[in-house]
Design brief:
Elements: E1 4-8, E2 14-19, H1 27-36, E3 42-49, E4 56-61, H2 64-67, H3 70-80
Antiparallel strand pairs: 1-2, 2-3, 3-4
């Protein structure tokens, strides 16, 4: 099952964030996830807005789902826009 996280920014836009390539479970997916991880251990995360804003792509730590606060995540989204 794909893990995702929703946050709402100060403009009341709700963002749904998922790690890239994490939508399916297979050997090919596992390999894509490993290859997409940076040398510093960051992984690509795609955040899609509920409104008219544009989707953003972030590089976050592997444990972003549990380690980042909502404020840290919305700050990263705002910086990437």
């Amino acid at each position: 099952m794909m893990k995702q996280r929703e946050v709402t920014d100060k403009h009341k836009t709700t963002w749904t964030c998922v790690q890239a390539y994490a939508a399916t479970e297979s050997a090919a997916t596992d390999e894509a996830i490993k290859r997409s991880e940076t040398d510093s251990g960051a992984v690509p995360v795609v955040c899609t807005p509920s409104g008219g804003a544009q989707t953003v792509r972030l590089e976050l730590s592997k444990d972003w789902l549990d380690s980042l606060s909502d404020e840290e995540l919305t700050t990263a989204i705002a910086a990437a826009q």
